[in-house]
Amino acid sequence: MRRIGVLYNPLSESSIRISHELTGWLHGRGLSVWRGVSHEGREEPSALDDLELLVALGGDGTVLRAAHLAIAKGGNIPVLPVALGHLSFMSELQPEELYEGIATLLDGGGWHDERSLIAATIMCDERPPQHVLALNEVIVGRGDINRVVHVDVEIYNTSLTTYVADGVIVASATGSTAYALSAGGPVVDPRSRALTLVPLAAHLTNIPSLVLHEDATISLHVRSRHPALFASDGRATIALHAGDTVEVRRTDQTMTFARVHPPSAFYAGLAKRLRREP
After folding, report:
1. What does the pLDDT look like over 198-229, one tens digit per residue?
2. In the 8-state DSSP scheme, what is residue 47?
């Protein structure tokens, strides 16, 4: 490797400190380094040109921001997540493993973990279709704190049910341990290409959370007269109204995590993370 990126969380003192220390260590090994925060990478994407690795120092939010920077560059930059957050389901290295882990990757070790992405198309009468990529999930949810939304769900153009709920989540396998998990969804092996459908606080429904085939197409039709919102990966929302539709499917585009530990590490640490142990 010749050029590495270091993404840090500007609100975390430990992330800022470690990013400085890591940058110095990498320079000492003769590597070129981009060090920055996510908005700098979005505003000047050319700064990420030729990166062969992007180290994300933070929790799952920082990892998501790093992933979206990589996705914007075609998904060709592997992201190495370093756990500095509370849950860090997507993390690969603990801080004490950082230098040994990166040295392993620099010496040609480790492996690449490709993750499926979700493609959503938002169709509203008043606007051209909008296309969004997500790593974790897309959500059609309520726009008013006191009002549920009515969402008709179709899978393969076949009616499934109408949820009267706070919202409906469609999550990737990676996202199964994020918002979907807190809503009662199942944990899916993150390397799976399956999708999950999870209602948020649904009222009197007999359709629970579902694990869907990787080729499933899901249509979410807003039927409520109350305002609704679309969101993806916790990013900026889009207002929805009655008659608007969000179509969701897995896309062939992927993003890549750089890994040092074997795939079994996900299961080895799963119970501990679910218990939120330090």
Report:
1. 999 998 888 889 999 999 999 999 998 888 99
2. G
Q: At 143, phi and psi to the nearest 5? A: -100, -10
For residues 156 and 217, the answer to whether their CB atoms sit within 8 Å is: yes
Q: Which residues are catalytic?
A: 60
- Interval 164-196: pLDDT, tens: 999 999 999 999 999 999 999 999 999 999 999
pLDDT above 70: residue 28: yes
- Alpha-carbon gap, residue 34 to 57, rounded angstroms: 13
Q: Which two tokens stand for residue 125?
A: 């009468």
Asked if residue 105 and residue 176 are part of one domain, the reply reads: no
Q: Clarify whether residues 247 and 152 are in a common domain.
A: yes
The reply to whether 85 and 213 lie within a common domain is no
Residue numbers of the domain that contains 77: 3-110+260-274
Tokens of 251: 């896309």
Q: Which helix (H) or strand (E) holds 101?
A: helix 98-106
Name 208's Cβ contacts closer than 8 Å, sequence gap at least 6. none
Residues 34 and 55 in one domain: yes
Per-chain mean pLDDT for the chain: 93
The CATH number assigned to the domain holding 60 equals 3.40.50.10330
- Cα–Cα distance measured from residue 120 to residue 128, given in angstroms and rounded to the nearest whole number: 14
* Contact status, residue 172 vs residue 119, Cβ threshold 8 Å: no
